[in-house]
Amino acid sequence: MFPSLLLVLLIGAVAWAGASAGCAALFGVALPYAALAVFIAGMIWRITYWAKSPVPFCIPTTGGQEYSLDFIKQNKIDCPSTSGGVFVRMLLEILLFRSLFRNTSADVLENSPTGPRSIYYSSKWLWVFALWFHYCFLLIFIRHFRFFMEPVPSCITFIESIDGIMQIGAPRLFLTGVWILVALCFLLGRRVFNERLRYLSLFNDYFPLWLLIGIVGTGICLRYFDKTEIALVKIFIMGLAHFSPAPTTNINAMFFVHITLVSTLLFYFPFSKLTHMAGIFFSPTRNMSTNSRMTRHINPWNPPKQYFTYAEYEDTYRDAMAEAGLPLEKQPDKAAG
Amino acid sequence: MAKLPTPEMLIAGRPAFPDQGWLDVKPEFTPGSFCYPAKKDTMELLHMPHPHEWDPAAEDWNLPENWEQILCDAFAERLEKHRSLKLFMDICVRCGACADKCHFFLGTNDPKNMPVLRAELLRSLYRRDHTMLGKLLGRTVGARGWDKDVVKELFYYAYQCTECRRCSLFCPYGIDTAEITMIVRELLHEVGLGTHWIMDPVKNCSFTGNHLGIQPHSFVEIVEMLADDCETVTGIRPKTPFNKKNAEILFITPSGDVFADPGIYTFMGYLMLFHELDLDYTLSTYASEGGNFGSFTSFNMAKKLNAKMYAEAERLNVKWILGGECGHMWRVLNQYMDTYNGPTPANMIQPVSPVTGTKFRNAASTKMVHIAEFTADLIYHNKLNLDPGRNDHIITTFHDSCNPARGMGLLDEPRYVLKAVCNNFVEMPENTIREQTFCCGAGSGLNTEEIMELRMRAGMPRGNALRYVQQKFNVNHMACICAIDRATLTPLAGYWAPGVTVSGLHELVANALVMKGEDKRVMDLRQEDLPNVDADEPTDSEENASDARGEDQ
C-alpha cells in the first residue's frame, strides 16, 4: 500500500516542482498529448489482442432457469437464450453491476450450539460503493467537458446544477467530488482492513486507488482551496483541445499536478486491470447466449475427431459380445476369415 | 484411509492465513492433501505427453528436461486459442467478491483457495511473460517466473477446484475459475502430470466405454441383474435393449449408475420408466458412458470420449439421444458436445417425445434431451400413473449439481418431477441452492478416497445446509441429478448430516410409478420395506395416484 502511495506522491511532487520551475508546458501540454495517444493506441491494441483469440466454446454462466418446456418459466435475463436477453443481461451487468449485486458474505461459526455452521449474509456494500464510485466518476468526467466546449452545452450545466443542488459554499460544493472520495476511501479501506483483501491485494490494486484519490484531491483543491483562475484554465484547455496550446502563465502549479496525475492514469490504463472497462464487454460467460443446444457454436481450431471407433471396439470384444448375445456388425467366424 | 476428525475438529483445525505473502508460501504435500498420480502405462496408452513415474510427495517430480519451455509454449498457445483466458488474465480487479464463494476456501481457509488467488497463481506467470508492467517491475506487480515449486503449486490447487463455477456467478466480469482450472490442468498434462483417479477412468472410457473398464458382456450381465431386481420389487421385468439398430432413442447415462450404490437404483428407475412407457429405445455397450472424465483432463480428451455418442447414434440409426442424470456429462453435452463433434449425424432429428408429442426445441441442434426434461414433460401431460404416497416416509430436499445449475440452467425441471413423486419436499437455504448451489466437494475428478478429509472440508457448505434442513424440518433424504453426487454426497451426508440418505431423482420416480400389472409394492427399489404398507391389504394405489395427478392439472 505504501509504495504505491509514495509513487503517486512522487509523481505529484515532480509535477509541482517542474511546473514551478518553469516546465509547465512539459506537464501541461506534452504529457497530456502523449498520455492520450498512449491511452487510445493502448486500448485499441488491448482490444485487438483480445479479439485475435477466438471464443472456441459457448460457455455462458447460467444464472437461472434455462429455456425449456412450455410450462417451465425461463429466467430470460440470467439465462438468456436470445440476443435480446443477452443484451439486457449485459446492460444490467454494465450499468448496474448485477453480478456484484448478488454478493453475499459467508462466515463459518465454529462454536454454534448445533455444531460448526456456515452462514451467509447479504453483502451489498461493495456493490453500493463500486457503483457509487463509477457513477460519480462518470459525472465528474462529463462535468469536465465544460472546459473543452464553448459554449458549454446545457446538459452539462444541468448536471452541474444537480451536482451542486445542496448549494453549500461558493463555489458551490459538487456532491460527486465528496462522494467519489468516500467511495474511494471505502474501496481502499476494505483492502487495508479486510484480512482476505489485504492478503491478496497487490501494488497494482493500491496504485490506481491512490492515483484516483490524488486526482480527485487535487481537483477539489483547485476548486475550493488553492483556487485557480478558472478562465485561464479554460483558455488553456481549449487551446489543448484545438491543438494550439495557450501559454501556461499564471496557472497554479497544482493544476499541473492534477493534469500530470490524470495523464499518469491514461498511461497506466491500457496496461493494467483498469482494462476491465472494455473487457467486460468481451466476457464470454456473460455475453453469450445460452442456446448451445439449439445452435451449433463453431470452434475455429476444432481438432479432427480421433477416438476409439465402434469397429475397433467390436474387433476387441467380438467373441465376448457374441457370447452375451449382443448384435454384431461382423460375426466372429466371418471376422476370423 | 485415515480416520476423519470430527466436524468440530475439522473446522477448528483450519489454519489462520500465513504471515508470509502468497508468493513466498509453498504448498506442503502431506498425505491426504493430494490425489495419487496417474500411472505411466495409462498415460502411454492414451498417448499423453511425457508419461513418467512420479510422486507428488517427493522432492523431484521427474519433469521432462525442457519442462519450462514446454509450459511457456503451451501457455502461449492456450492464450491464442481462448479469448476467455486472455481476458481473465487481464481484467481481474481483485475485488474479492469471489473469495468466500468457494467451498474449498470455506472448508480449508487456505488463501490460495480463494478463486482470485487460485487464478493469480497462473496470472503471476502471465504477467512476467505477457504484460509490459510485469516484465518491467517483476514481483512488485505480482509477476513471477516458472520454477518447479510453481508447477507443484499449480498442481496442488488445480486439484482443489471442482470447476463448479460458483465464483463466476458472483464475479462482476464473469471470470470463470473453472476455465482457468481446466487450462492449468491441460498445462500440467503437457509435462506428464495427471491424477490416477481421472486418468484411469479416461483410459477405461476410451477403450471399453465405461469408467470401470467393465467389458461388454459383463456390462450386459450387470444390467440384466438390475432388471431382475426390478422384477423382485414390482413383479415386472423391464426390457433391457442393447445395441439395437433403428431404435427411436439412444439412452446414455453415466456408467456409475450401472455399478455403484446408490446410482444403481436410479438406473433401475430408468429401466422401469422406459418399460412402462414401452419406449422404443436402446442402450449401447460401446457408448455406455455419459460421464466424461476427459473434461477433467483436456478439451481434446473430452472431445475424444464424447465423440462416441454421435458415432453410435449414427451406427444405430437412432433419431435422438436421451441423457441420464449426470452433472459434468451435461456440462459437456450442453456447452461443448455440438462444438466438439457436431453437426449431428443425418439420421438424427429434433427430439420429439414419442409419448406426449412435445418437441424439445431447446435441443434442436444437439438432439439430446435431459431425462429430467423428458420426465417433467410426461408428468405435465399426465402420462404417468404416480403414487407419491409411497415416498411419504421420506422428507426430501434437492441438491442442484453445479454443472446443470451453472452450466445449463436445469433448475425447475427436476423440482417439478420431484414434487410430483414426493409429497414432502423442502428446499435448503437460498444461498445454497439453484444457481448459488454448493458443490458436493468432490466433483471434477476429486471423488477419490485418499483425499477424503479434503472432500469433507470442501463439502462443508453443502453438508451444513443439509444439516440445517435436517434439524429444522426433519429432512431425511436428498435427491440429486448427478452420478458423482450420488457417490460423493453419501459419505458427505454420513459425515455432516448422519441419517440423510441420498438418491437420484428417478429412483424416487420409479418408487412412485404405478406400473401396469405390477404386484403390490411392499418395498422400495432398495428392497427396504415400505412403512405404512400392509402386504395383506388390497392395493389402493391406483385411486391415490389419480388423485395426485388431478392436483397437477
Report what the structure shows.
- The complex is a heterodimer of chains A (337) and B (553).
- Chain A is mainly alpha-helical.
- Chain A has helices at 2-52, 83-96, 98-101, 125-143, 154-163, 175-193, 195-200, 203-225, 230-241, 253-268, 276-279, 310-323, 332-336; strands at 104-109, 117-122.
- In chain A, strands 1-2 form a two-stranded antiparallel sheet.
- In chain A, helix 1 (2-52) packs across helix 8 (203-225), helix 4 packs antiparallel against helix 6 (175-193) and helix 8 (203-225) runs antiparallel to helix 10.
- Chain A is elongated.
- The mean pLDDT of chain A is 92.
- Chain B contains 25 helices and seven strands.
- In chain B, the strands form two sheets. In chain B, strands 2-1-3-4 form a four-stranded parallel β-sheet. In chain B, strands 5-6-7 form a three-stranded parallel β-sheet.
- Chain B is globular and about 80 Å long.
- Chain B starts with 6 loop residues before the first helix and ends with a helix.
- The interface between A and B is large, with 102 and 123 residues.
Low-confidence stretches of chain B: 541-553
Rg of chain A from C-alpha positions?
Answer: 29 Å
Structural class of chain B: mainly alpha
**Which quaternary structure do these chains form?**
heterodimer
User: How much of the residues of chain A is beta strand, in percent?
Assistant: under 5%
The helix content of chain A, as a percent range, equals: 55-70%
Query: What structural class should be given to the helix and strand makeup of chain A?
Result: mainly alpha
Strand order of the largest sheet of chain A: 1-2
Q: Helix count of chain A?
A: 13
| Strand proportion of chain B | under 5%
Portion in helices of chain B: 40-55%
Cα end-to-end separation of chain A:
79 Å
Largest sheet features of chain B: 4 strands, parallel
- Average pLDDT of chain A, to the nearest integer? 92
Shape of chain B: globular
| CATH architecture descriptor of the largest domain in chain A | Up-down Bundle
Main-sheet strand order of chain B equals: 2-1-3-4
Q: Strand count, sense and closure of the main sheet of chain A?
A: 2 strands, antiparallel
